[in-house]
Queue: 3 jobs
Job 1
Amino acid sequence: MSAVTLRACVLIACSLLGTAPAPAGAGQAYPLWLARGSRLLVQARVQGQAVEALLDSAAEATLVDRSFARRLKLLGETTVSAEGSGRSSFDAQLVPGVRLQVFGVALSNQTVAIADLADVGQRLLGRRLDVILGREIFDAARLRIDIEARTVTVLPASAQPHGVRLELVAEHAVETLPVLIEGTGPVRATFDLGNGSDVLVGSQLAQRLHLLTDGRSVLARRGGGLGGETERPVIRLRSLQLAGRRFRDVPAAVDARDSASDLNIGVSILRHFVITTDFAQRALWLQPRR
């Protein structure tokens, strides 16, 4: 999916207002399932209505499909320009005062964005997509995410996570973590559970490292999330190192958008770890799977 950037700073402020200080579901494991092998889906509620949602840690706010929003009588008050990982920007309407619930955590007074998700749902899932659940839940709770075991557990703040602790740094309102590419770095990589495709390399980093001009094979592949399908050059990184684990011969698509981060790490890499997130504490722990 890649990051969804909404061009309105009020959006992030409103999202944080509804953060739950003490998650009621702490300690309980909730199901996570994979669509097409790499898209993370969870059960959530919007305005009390149960809905299947795509989990996206790099979306600044939850997005609701227009047809589903009409059924919930959600009416947008402000229109903003939004950017996904597709070829162009798109319009979204902001709706404040929305109730979200997921993993036993209730989030009140959230600002969500209403957009047309029909195209991206068909391309990513092969069917309709009503909700993309954004970073609100990551801001509100410490989460243990085990993609291979297909579970998400809400942890108490006092829990001691396992694995390598990495500092989170916000860039363009999404969270990034340090990664080494072919011995170079560290560079900051977007932590993107909504990215069910290849690692993404920003074109500026690709240019600095001569990744498209050093003789390695360059293919073309269609991809992209919100904003429409696009074609990208695809290369193979000789090595990528994250939390002490080295991955070799890693497929990576070059993202030419001006707003692209240097790197974007998604499910293809993150599924090899048990992940603990704590956005409020600016930290993430990665425990390599055996």
Job 2
Amino acid sequence: MKKITYLLIILILSSCQKEDVGGIPTYIKINSIELEDNITYNITDAWVYINGQLQGVYELPAKFPVLNEGNTDIKIYAGIKNNGISSDRVIYPFYSADTINKTLTVNSTTEIDPTVNIKENIDGQFDDFDNGFSFNSDTRFQELTNGPYGNYGSLSLDSLSDSDSILITEINYKDFPLSFDNVPQQGSPTYMELDYKTNTSFLVGMYINSPNSPTLEKGLLWINPKEDWNKIYIDLTQTISEAIGAETFSIFIKMQRDPNLDENKLDFDNIRIIHYEN
């Protein structure tokens, strides 16, 4: 069992819920949390509430003791690694919770299979390569087929002939760039989701477009190489909240060349900008 105890409140609760408090525990087992909607996801943690009280945060798969018995409401929130960082784990705000009622029996194990959904009051864009996705960029770009999610984009740098870095200047989908506006600010969450695999580091950032001001380019997150396809949730909230007076925002990706590799390659798919309705 891996219990995540990086929040003070969880540390306090954990210290009060040890098995040696005099009760006989029952155990709850959660192998995974599924997303019912037909998109990719990377749910890593279960935030568990028992009868309205926080039980703990558990890395999946998990098996953990509780001192409840009888008719019990178990509420599960889907947790992610914020910006792909293991030490920054949060409830993903755009997935609903799943409440499951179970009759718990002491000294036994109850297995549950939570399923969450994307909330209804959200907005944004979901762009992939299966519906006419095209790029304008100053680099080598290919649209490939037969990826794990259908068509996907691929960027490459030849270490002998290409420049030091690569910048996607504009991402077009059905004649408009991957830009977004009318985004709630003042701390309302906004995320970018991205599926990728890469043998070199790359930077995700934003262009902040304000009236009567030069466009501001802001790098947000360097992402490390990943041999297999991975999904990352990139938190745009603070950047957008601080951009007072901005009219629109755009996403860019910059890939850094590693001269130790014959070819630097980044494959990516399923770019999703998601926020609450304004």
Job 3
Amino acid sequence: MAALAVTAVAVVLGVAVVWPALHHAVRALTLPLHHADIIRQQAHEKHLDPALIAAVIYTESHFRDRESTAGAEGLMQLLPGTADFIARSSGATRFSLSDLATPQVNIAYGSWYLRYLMNRYDNQPGLAIAAYNGGEANVDQWLRDARARGEPLSIDAIPFPETRAYVRGVLGAQRAYRSQYGAELGPAP
């Protein structure tokens, strides 16, 4: 009986010691977070929720630097034309497409674009995220169509299934990052 009690205590202590590391490993696999320092910096500079930036990166690339089939580059999957627009609009003195492979540049440009879209769409994250994925011209048209019907543009009313799913995915990931990494990411603005 005493041996059973000692074994039970040893198991409980072992689980208590291993659990934090196991929990961290599972979280890193299911909801990875890399470049938190850059995300915090850009969120602060651009007055964005760092969980939103992390959510866009997660949804776009799962924190892997890659090029999409459409030619989008890096962690935040920026198209070359969009990156050129950002470079010219943000006052960059020189820009090369290869710069998008650098996390600092890619996250800075993607965050700049998110702030631009948030400003353009009256700080409505759903619309800004829809434009990040589906393009500003499409969101503008959807807004005109919704206004003509006398209603706001809801996520459910986004005509592109991919963009509708993207907006839901980013907003869900934003909540998950806020919940799982809130202290590490810092406060929302």
